[in-house]
Amino acid sequence: MWRVVCVFLAVFLSGAGAASADGPVKIGALTESWGPTPAVVGLRDGLLALGYREDVDFTIGVRFTQGDLQALYPAARELVRFGVDIIFCSGAQAAKAAQEATDTIPIVFASTSDPIGRGLIQSFARPGGNITGLTDLDLALAPKRLEVFRALIPGMKRVLFAYNASSDYARHTGKAYREAAHRLGIILQERALGSEEEARATLTRIRNGEVDGILAPFNPDLNIPGLILEATAKQGIPSMFGFAFMVDQGGLASYGPSLFESGRLAARLVDKIMRGVKPAEIPVEVNTKIEFVINLKVAKALGLEIAPEVLYQADRLIR
User: Fold this and answer.
1) Cβ–Cβ contacts within 10 Å for residue 260, how many?
2) What are phi and psi of 194, to 5 degrees?
3) In angstroms, rounded to a whole number, what is the distance separating the alpha carbons of residues 160 and 213?
4) Same domain, 28 and 125
């Protein structure tokens, strides 16, 4: 389902054919996902809300690498060769790839935590170079996410966190979960995975009862979030994600930043660049919109009865 939906969205958004020099501004979106992310959709909707016309004032073409982080680098160079006017990056790894590919084409990132620590910018006020964007609070929210997960699953004792072994960000997230688990009296079982094949083998073997739930990594590396969706549907294991899109696709719940909002806010930065402002002079903004979403259909299928006080805290319930 995850792959099918993303491919559909890619067809829906990829109208960025060749344009003349005085034609629409060509925006190349780069992501390691399976198609346009909610941030890409938010960017398009944000530009429309600002009065821009799709295919007249701007076009968006998406390059996605289906969970392969290394493929982001040739994909970024492909966008440069194509002659895009702006590169929009959904995620920090995509932004790093774009930075390596060009120091002249403006880059706008979204869905990115700790952009200074990751070497993307010099400061929030003056990011420097040819880059600016939207940061979010995902990493800071990791302890609260585990706390919310425990409230959803009474008696939670063991939780699995599966992630890409080569992802620095996932390792930082694991550290935050580890500290929170110790405080909450939960056993965190960490699985650092090296390939999609290993991820599939690990997540299809796990059985309900061995763990009380699975924490998904924020990024789609190695298709781990998609495989966790399968574990929820086929093995009946509750799942917690960092963003709402995966809950719409069959996850139990999510607690984290609104990726759509990150894209929508990024449209304002793109607007400034289209008006001639240099990215180095556009301060990086923070997306503070947090979403707590519960899929009640999944909860019912899993036999979970969620406490009313937890349901009242949700921003959205999928019935």
Assistant:
1) 24
2) -105, -10
3) 6
4) yes
pTM of the model: 0.86
The region that residue 260 occupies, defined by phi over 0 for left and psi between -120 and 50 for alpha, beta otherwise, is: alpha
pLDDT in tens, 242-301: 999 999 999 999 999 999 999 999 999 999 999 999 999 999 999 999 999 999 999 999
Q: Per residue in 46-79, pLDDT tens? A: 999 999 999 999 999 999 998 888 999 999 999 9
If one counts the domains in the chain, the total is 2
Residue type, 307: A
Indicate the angle between helix axes 224-235 and 2-13, nearest 10 degrees: 140
Tell me: do 78 and 188 sit in the same domain: no
Neighbours of 141 (CB within 10 A): 20
CA angle (261, 267, 272) in 5-degree steps: 145
Name the residue range of residue 220's domain.
Answer: 138-256+291-318
Position 22 pLDDT exceeds 80: no
